[in-house]
Amino acid sequence: MPLLLTLAILVNVALFAFGQGFFGTPPVEQGRDPRPLSQRNQTAITLDPPLATHSEQP
């Protein structure tokens, strides 16, 4: 019985590692063409200048 439990845990760990991509490209990412960071939409977020903070006087 302990052998069966150990075997089940090892199979689960191996499948988790495979799904996360420890053995290469994860199955979810296969067939995708990732774009480099420089080609992503850089205008999607615009940053305003920081707001002026007012310190309280005692």
Major beta-sheet overview? none
The chain-level structural class is mainly alpha
The helix content is 25-40%
Share of β-strand residues? under 5%
CA radius of gyration is 24 Å
Specify the overall morphology.
elongated
Low-confidence stretches: none
H and E order: H
Oligomeric state of shown chains: single chain
**Mean pLDDT figure:** 78
Tally of helical runs: 1
Q: Report the strand count.
A: 0
- Separation of the first and last Cα atoms: 72 Å
Walk me through what this model shows.
The protein is an all-alpha fold and 58 residues long. The chain contains 1 helix and no strands. It has one helix at residues 2-20. The N and C termini lie far apart (72 Å). The relative contact order is 0.07. The mean pLDDT is 78.
Brief digest:
This protein is mostly helical. The protein contains one helix and no strands.
List the helices and strands and how they pair.
Elements lengths: L1 H19 L38
List keywords for this structure.
1 helix, mainly alpha, 58 residues, elongated
